[in-house]
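Practice problem: predict the structure.
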Amino acid sequence: MNKIETDIFEGGKKLPLIQEFYSIQGEGYHTGKAAYFIRIGGCDIGCRWCDTKVSWNLDMHTLASTDSIIEAAYKSEAKSIVVTGGEPSSYDLNYLCKKAKEKDLQTFIETSGAYPLTGNWDWICLSPKQQKPPVKEVNLQADELKMIIYNDEDFIWAEESAKKVSDNCKLYLQPEWSRREENTPKIIEYIKKNPKWNLSVQLHKYLQIP
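Answer:
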């Protein structure tokens, strides 16, 4: 898909919205905190274990007004927005961040880092994928590195990725949901031997909330 630059998005004033909702963060460093989630459609990474494959095809999703999205986030009384996908780094998000800051909303993004980021972000959660690794600048910008563990080889990929982020980046290992019973004990033992890592679980799925 590459970096998407097309007139239909009007410089980021419109985005292919899959869903938006107010909930609590279920993964990583900010687990348990309230946030307004904005899921953008379109992704060319193609993870076989992806739990939101509906996000892959850009053409399936209606273009929504970025102003309306931010207004809904503001009215929800959320203090922060979380932009996820799909792959949000595919889009120009300068306008979205500008409007969010005007409403005093903190801006968080969850990305594979496949493309350079646009926008002003308070927190960048990087979840790299081997089939399309992050660009160097996103590695260095990341506040949080979240590695999904599907099989044993993913521990090697996690260590390789950890070498590319800054010393201040928070490091997390998270079991892929369909293999959580098998992989969570492995991750726990790995972290006990490598305590620079932290455990992330998909709390929202255990609680059965969005």
